[in-house]
Amino acid sequence: MRRGPQKPEEPYRINERITAQRVRVVGENIKVDVYPIQQAIRLAQEQNLDLVEISPNADPPVCKVVDYSKFKYEQKKKQKEIKAKTVKVVIKEIRFGPNTDDHDFNFKLKHAVTFLQEGAKVKATVFFAGRSIVYKERGEILLLKFAQLLEENGKVEQMPRLEGKRMSMMLMPKAKK
After folding, report:
1. CB atoms near residue 167 (< 10 Å)
2. What is the DSSP string of 45-87?
């Protein structure tokens, strides 16, 4: 067994590592056709390039004549672009008690408005401590009032639902025009 840092395994097979007997060859300055593997490698070497297996599951496997280091660089670049385009969903939580006062309620309402304007989802939670669980209706009324006041900035994704000692509701931002 070897210890120490291992080299990451290459994601693509190149040149002599390609195991298929016949391959379909594509690339610039190459006639697209099915070639025996030795002839395909020779075609790549004549242009001082590598033969890279890009689609091993095809029949016959597809190989591209390309500079391998440049090919790997372009693949990494594509992966970065895909990762950058993915949307990250941010969820902000706002917590109330069943007896939250009007001032506190309005303060938290303003925060919720800014969160929704920034494009984050808001999870409004009423936490019932001790015997306050008997005021379930108050908690639900509080959350529905909260949703009603946020109607122009967001819409309800999930209605108030009681989970143990918490009643929560999800709001999502309205699409920008």
Report:
1. 23
2. HHTT-EEEEEETTSSSPEEEEE-HHHHHHHHHHHHHHHHHHSP
The whole-model pTM stands at: 0.54
For residue 30, pLDDT beyond 70:
yes
Residue type at position 107: F
Three-state secondary-structure class, residue 38: helix
d(CA 67, CA 73): 10
What is the per-residue pLDDT across 61-93, written as a single tens digit (0 to 9) for each? 999 999 989 999 999 999 999 888 887 788 999
- Distance, CA of 62 to CA of 85 (rounded, Å): 29
For residue 25 the two structure tokens come to 């060859």
